[in-house]
User: Fold these one by one.
Assistant:
Number 1:
Amino acid sequence: TYVVTDNCIKCKYMDCVEVCPVDCFYEGENMLVIHPDECIDCGVCEPECPADAIKPDTEPGLEKWLEVNNDYASKWPNITSKKDAPADAKEFDGIEGKFEKYFS
Ligand code: SF4
Ligand code: F3S
């Protein structure tokens, strides 16, 4: 599966939603997650993310993010079309530790 990681938080560009062939993105207030059981590993979303937040879970060190994606995909509503990104998305691109401060 692919997973959404820290840099999505408060950037939330949602370009990923547009390209996913199986509509497996779920929406929190500040972030999206991928449902690991629904993702078919096509990989098309990874290069679409302007914040470079989407990674294959085969990359080392992503266990925490796999857990976050798995947990919240079943709590948050499905999102199938792109909305406007937050007006201040750019200001949050690349900030460290967003999960601790802004995850929602
Ligand atoms: Fe959707 Fe493909 Fe990205 Fe998985 S890898 S979330 S199926 S676009
Ligand atoms: Fe987040 Fe990137 Fe999608 S910022 S909403 S994973 S396009």
Number 2:
Amino acid sequence: MTHSPELPIPAAFEELGVEHAILRALAEIHFVEPSEIQRRMIPPVLAGRDVLGQARTGTGKTAAFGLPLLQRLDASAAFQVLIVVPTRELAVQVEGEMIRFAKHKHTRIACVYGGRKVLHDEKAMERRPQVIVGTPGRILDLQIRQLLPLEQVRHLVFDEVDRMFDIGFRDDVRKIINSCRSQPQMIFVSATISDEINRMVQQHMRNPETIFTAKPEDTLTNAKAQQYYAGVNPWDKLRALKLLLAAEKPGLAIIFCRTKRTVDKVAKALNERGFNASAIHGDLMQNKRERVMRGFRHGKINILVATDLASRGIDVHEITHVINYDVPEDPEVYVHRVGRTARMGAGGKAYTFVAHGQGQMQTEIEKLTNVLLEPAQIPGFTPSPEPNRRLDRGPQQSTGRPESSGSPSSASPVEEGYAPTSFPSTPAAPAAPRPIHGRFPTRRRR
Ligand code: AMP
């Protein structure tokens, strides 16, 4: 196939040492300029170095490791590159990107993840792929079945490794690393790098090249995302949400809730009010999740109500709004949620509902991201008085758990009408402007 004259080879990628077959593919998908993480990561990965790369979500990490690894692999050997990701959605997305990059290389790429028949993945392994993208549990399962010879892996990537730790894959990560006895080239990428990740890297990497693309004075969230908070009582959240959506008229929005049950409740309430919303969480069958994601990607659904776990890997460029219906439990989760909007240079807005007693978490978020959230005005919204407190239910009796705990779906205590203390009649506002110091996260909050 000859290269189309109207598609010039992206010279900036060529200067990084990217080979012609990949440059052609990049031209076709209109990658002209490498992002910072790509500029800094491609050369050391091409040189065979172990790399620890930190970069915000949506800044092109997949190409940063994917392009040089495609170039490095030996066409004659199978099971060479293993890319481990935390969720099925991200696995599908990374596979899709790799297929696009490898268009003129004819590399066999497979994607494996839990939640669908093992038979499917068994067939995929029989085709002896050179690149495998997968979730930890399924990768180990295939190894136990002797279908995925991890000892043949020469390049091992852990994508979003901070999230993998959060959702309990720590042991699986270690098992995978220990099974790759061939001392593969190791690449870890992460939006945030905690002490813990650093420690693990020291153990498993040889003389790694460490790349931080966020400097202490930078924000971790995308500067193009306008970030707001609104003080909203737990019992007022649905009403505030509907008013916010009516005022903002988002093109595509993701609403994050803490539990699967809240996700279902919010999606149902929005549909009843005529919004075009769908729920996505880990209890849905895989094909239903894929259907919802397709609908969202193609604009047939414009509001996705999601748990954090289900949101990993949602790479839809036109997401205009992220709404944190429930405050994330960890400031790093906030970074990931807000990273769903304002991707690759587009604009976007993020709103966070902050209830009484959650100001500290807001401060933690602001310190981590180095962004002071602006107070939001929700047109038509006034706080309502606290409904009668239900004395039969306190937080200790609540079964509310975030989805990532893997527990059965349940409601958050605040969704059940419980509030820790009475709530002021005006929206909660931070007591005083908080000084924000450019702080780079080195400690993980537990
Ligand atoms: P990632 O951070 O890898 O999820 O990438 C975010 C989105 O940006 C994906 O849709 C990529 O296809 C796209 N992308 C990555 N790098 C570039 C680039 N250099 N030029 C244009 N788009 C890019």
